[in-house]
From TrEMBL:
PROSITE patterns assigned: SAM_OMT_I
Pfam families for this protein: Methyltransf_3
Keyword hit for S-adenosyl-L-methionine: yes
Entry protein name: Caffeoyl-CoA O-methyltransferase
Family classification: Belongs to the class I-like SAM-binding methyltransferase superfamily. Cation-dependent O-methyltransferase family.
Family matches, as Gene3D superfamilies: Vaccinia Virus protein VP39
Species in which this protein is naturally found: Eleusine coracana subsp. coracana
Transmembrane annotation, as ranges: none
GO biological process: methylation
GO molecular-function term, one example from the UniProt record: O-methyltransferase activity
Annotated keywords: Methyltransferase, S-adenosyl-L-methionine, Transferase
Length: 247
């Protein structure tokens, strides 16, 4: 989550909602993708939650519909049964996950703000997938440490989706590498931070965005050379990085 760090410049992600959060330079092309492939295949419960979220004051935090479709596809392709989500907000990506998991699947979902989650919970319940969701309120590094304290959780997860405070991704990566099994998948959201990663230091964006862009650049450099994972950078949404744990 980015807030304006006291700078007079707006954050780059302001006014971004579920139908225009993309690095694609052609809005027409993005609209075409959404209208042709993404939105017609979006489950009704997700559509309802997306609309509620779009109208929320922090609506720009939600993953866009094409990214949620990618997440559902990844879960199904990998046959993931046990996953972790770091950064839930109203639960749009969480609902995508819960719908994609098999009936006996589980997602441990972590967020500091249970009030946001409560907004989305009725949609998760109505979709009949609440039994797959284990929501844990609190700071992600603390909740992940609690999971790590139980050795049974080591290597027990098939996939993790990280979409919380961007400056902590490096820390989460170290924790998640112990929780996700070899061959499992770690997905990081916002890894191009609206394109700011290539802006010069004097670019007219907020101090907060400069700070996040620097952290995301460090993360990308570190993931690209991390011998424990195979990495793939996508330009979906504002950057999604997929890592496959190899050792
Ligand atoms: C970008 S939103 C998540 C969006 C969600 N994945 C979706 O698709 O709708 C980021 C969330 O991370 C949570 N968050 C921020 N810092 C956190 C931290 N240190 N630990 C846990 N959650 C955190 C915020 O409360 C916010 O709900």
């Amino acid at each position: 989550m980015a807030t304006d760090g006291g700078s007079s410049m707006p954050n780059v992600q302001s006014n971004i909602f579920s139908t225009n959060k993309t690095l694609l330079r052609s809005k027409t092309l993005y609209k075409y993708v959404l209208e042709t492939t993404v939105l017609p295949n979006e489950p009704e419960s997700m559509r309802e939650l997306r609309i509620l979220t779009d109208n929320h004051e922090m609506g720009d935090m939600a993953s866009p519909a094409d990214e949620a479709q990618l997440l559902r596809m990844l879960i199904k392709l990998t046959g993931a049964k046990t996953t972790i989500e770091v950064g839930v907000y109203t639960g749009y990506s969480l609902l995508a996950t819960a719908l994609a998991l098999p009936d006996d699947g589980k997602v441990v979902a972590i967020d500091t703000n249970p009030e946001y989650y409560e907004l989305g919970r009725p949609f998760i319940e109505k979709a009949g997938v609440a039994h797959k969701v284990d929501f844990r309120a609190g700071l992600a590094h603390e909740r992940l440490n609690e999971l790590l304290a139980d050795e049974a959780n080591h290597g027990a997860f098939d996939l993790a989706f990280v979409d919380a405070d961007k400056t902590s991704y490096g820390r989460y990566h170290e924790q998640l590498l112990r929780l996700v099994r070899v061959g499992g998948v770690l997905v990081y959201d916002n890894t191009l931070w609206f394109g700011t990663v290539v802006l010069p230091p004097d670019a007219p964006i907020s101090e907060e965005d400069h700070r996040i862009a620097a952290a995301v650049r460090d993360l990308n450099a570190s993931l690209a050379t991390d011998g424990r994972v195979e990495v793939c950078q996508l330009t979906v949404a504002d950057g999604v990085t997929i890592c496959r744990r190899i050792v």
